[in-house]
Specification:
Layout lengths: L11 H16 L9 H13 L1 E8 L6 H4 L2 E8 L5 E5 H4 L2 E7 L5 E9 L5 E6 L22 E6 L9 E15 L3 E10 L9 E3 L5 E9 L11 E6 L7 H7 L8 E2 L2 E6 L2 E7 L4 H4 L7 E5 L2 E2 L3 H9 L8 E7 L2 E7 L2 E2 L11
Antiparallel strand pairs: 1-2, 1-4, 2-3, 3-6, 4-5, 5-6, 7-8, 7-10, 8-9, 9-12, 10-11, 11-12, 13-20, 14-15, 15-16, 16-17, 16-18, 18-19
Helix pairs in contact: 1-2
Length: about 350
């Protein structure tokens, strides 16, 4: 079957990689569900054109500057005809300036539109027309199967460099808990990993957007197996909140208690790894090495259980009672949480 097609010269590098990937799809068609190679190539090419690079500047004294830096770069994907772009929120958190780099290396100003703490999604909008970048359609991660071939794209970083195209595959879909008080009930894990994953869109073979890149992980397959890969936040979580996020810059689900801990699961217990400076956890006397056994008297043995119990209250600032082991001492620690979004600067534009 013929899989080549005529495309403008500036796109030939990316399209040659797409073509090579489609050849792999054709070769593996007997073992993996695939679209016809020609159809997949055309869908991937259209999706590729909607991907942009992002450069973000953040003030030195911003709360997130210590951990995420003041100069950030990553990717985004056009999802609206008005220049609306979806990315991962930590790229544009507390942003002072945002610049878009198009596939033909044009640099355009943009502004922040919204950031959802709960999912981690961020929205920005181009301030000038984005020519040649049609909005992508959104798919769903709910029916993905292990082994399904996907395309991930990183936006052009500027300075004449090209965007990067990577063929990868789904290895698992499952809940994900992050050490930074973050949990989603559905995440997409792929392998082999891509390096520049921040905000990189993941597409299925119909060119539909499935998720946005968040992390490198060492256990993409789950089950305790070592499988380097990436975690993508699925667009299924964006669809119910997209209108609210555009309208208000945040979401009701994102207004949840935050105490300022980095934690991990250790032998059926939640262990504190780090306490954020000037956080409710620090003010309450929590320290690295502490073991959290219960929240408001309810035993918690996993990060998911810990977070969901923390968030299970009507008021984000309602006091929380933690049962903790500090050294050899069992203590009850009262923490007064805050709304996470209240601790951060609002990006310019929100």
């Amino acid at each position: 079957m013929k899989i080549c097609h005529r495309f403008p010269a500036p796109r030939w590098r990316a399209l040659s990689l797409i073509a090579a990937g489609c050849m792999v799809l054709a070769a593996n068609a007997a073992n993996t569900p695939t679209e016809a190679p020609q159809s997949a190539m055309e869908a991937f090419a259209k999706a590729h054109d909607a991907v942009v690079g992002l450069r973000v500047g953040v003030a030195q004294d911003a709360r997130s500057a210590q951990t995420l830096g003041v100069e950030r770069s990553g990717s985004g994907v056009v999802i609206g005809a008005d220049g609306l772009i979806l990315t991962i929120g930590y790229l544009m958190m507390e942003a002072e300036t945002i610049e878009i780099i198009t596939q033909d290396n044009k640099k355009l100003p943009a502004k922040a539109v919204g950031y959802d703490v709960a999912t981690g999604f961020g929205l920005v909008r181009a301030l000038l027309p984005l020519r040649g970048a049609a909005p992508v359609a959104m798919g769903s991660a709910t029916a993905l199967k292990a082994g399904e071939a996907m395309m991930a794209v990183t936006g052009a970083p500027g300075d004449g460099a090209d965007s990067q195209v990577a063929m990868t595959q789904v290895v698992s879909t499952r809940p994900f808990s992050g050490y930074w008080e973050y949990h989603i009930d559905l995440a997409v894990f792929t392998s082999p990993p891509i390096a520049n994953h921040s905000g990189a869109p993941l597409f299925n073979q119909r060119g539909e957007l499935i998720g946005v890149g968040s992390l490198f992980v060492s256990d993409a397959a789950g089950g305790g197996r070592r499988t380097p890969g990436n975690m993508f936040v699925p667009v299924d979580l964006l669809k119910p909140i997209l209108a609210e996020l555009q309208q208000s810059g945040s979401t009701l689900q994102g207004r949840r208690p935050w105490i300022g801990l980095s934690s991990s699961e250790q032998g059926g217990r939640v262990q504190v790894l780090r306490v954020n400076p000037d956080s409710p956890a620090q003010q309450a006397g929590l320290a690295p090495g502490d073991l959290v056994l219960a929240v408001d008297g309810v035993t918690v043995a996993t990060l998911e259980a810990f977070y969901k119990k923390l968030w299970d209250r009507a008021q984000p600032d309602a006091e929380i009672s933690l049962t903790v082991v500090q050294g050899a001492t069992l203590r009850t620690v009262v923490v007064k949480p805050v709304d996470r979004s209240s601790t951060m600067r609002k990006p310019a534009g929100i």
